[in-house]
Specification:
6-stranded mixed sheet, single chain, 224 residues, binds ribulose-5-phosphate, 4-stranded antiparallel sheet, 28% helix
Length: 224
């Protein structure tokens, strides 16, 4: 199985996991990226079995609509049964790095609301310690230089992601080469820098279940 086949397999496994619990009024949260796109495509087969979805990006909203899946504003929804999304890295404790696709802030909001966060990844995303993948930080544009200087004072190298504007109109600074030994504390620390909207660590709200694609098939990981 190549990487895309593993992504497609976990996407189908996620649909199989949630399908028995879908009801006519169920609204689910849907993430962003190539694995999430495979999920949306697989979800289309049961579009009549639930109410619709909240999207974590404009790109995801467009893909959901292409499949005639209704897209809800999060403010009109009191409860999300599931959030299904990919990740750039995950560690043994279900902490994640996300935001490679620059959708981290809306992803974090939707994940916060959802009862169950099902993370869908191929095995290349598995690490012992987070941080090999550059950690995205979404920043208010006028604070770019200030936040860059604050990040430069930490371990690692901040790099402005040239040409990228998030769906919220902000910029991204990626923090390279940092071993994130305490993801919860580091997530809070970065979020306390004035001008930071949020960062791509999903540790204080990590995944509840990870479906990992391997060449041998999909492995379901749950906390002990
Ligand atoms: C987007 C994300 C994605 O979930 C992450 O980048 C993984 O993407 P892919 O499924 O394409 O490997 O956080 O902001």
């Amino acid at each position: 199985m190549n990487q895309d086949e593993m992504k497609r397999a976990v996407a189908i496994a996620a649909v199989d996991m949630i399908r028995p619990r879908l009801e006519k009024e169920t609204v689910i949260g849907v993430g962003t990226g190539s694995t999430a796109n495979f999920f949306i495509d697989a979800l289309a087969r049961c579009r009549d079995e639930f109410a619709g979805a909240v999207a974590s990006s404009e790109a995801t909203a467009a893909r959901l609509r292409q499949h005639d899946i209704e897209v809800f504003d999060l403010n009109s929804v009191s409860q999300l049964e599931f959030y299904i999304d990919g990740a750039d890295e995950f560690d043994p404790y279900f902490n994640l790095i996300k935001g490679g696709g620059a959708a981290l802030t809306r992803e974090k909001i939707v994940a916060a609301v959802a009862k169950t966060f099902i993370c869908i990844v191929d095995e290349s995303k598995q690490v012992d310690v987070l941080g090999s993948f550059p950690l995205p930080v979404e920043v208010i544009p006028m604070a770019r230089s200030y936040v860059g200087r604050q990040l430069a004072g930490l371990e690692g190298q901040p790099v402005y992601r040239d040409g990228v504007v998030t769906d919220n109109g902000n910029i991204i600074i990626d923090l390279h080469d940092v071993d994130i030994l305490d993801p919860k504390a580091f997530e809070r620390h970065l979020n306390n820098i004035v001008g930071v909207v949020t960062n791509g660590l999903f540790a204080n709200r990590g995944a509840d279940v990870i479906l990992m694609g391997t060449p041998q098939g999909v492995v379901t990981l749950k906390p002990d």
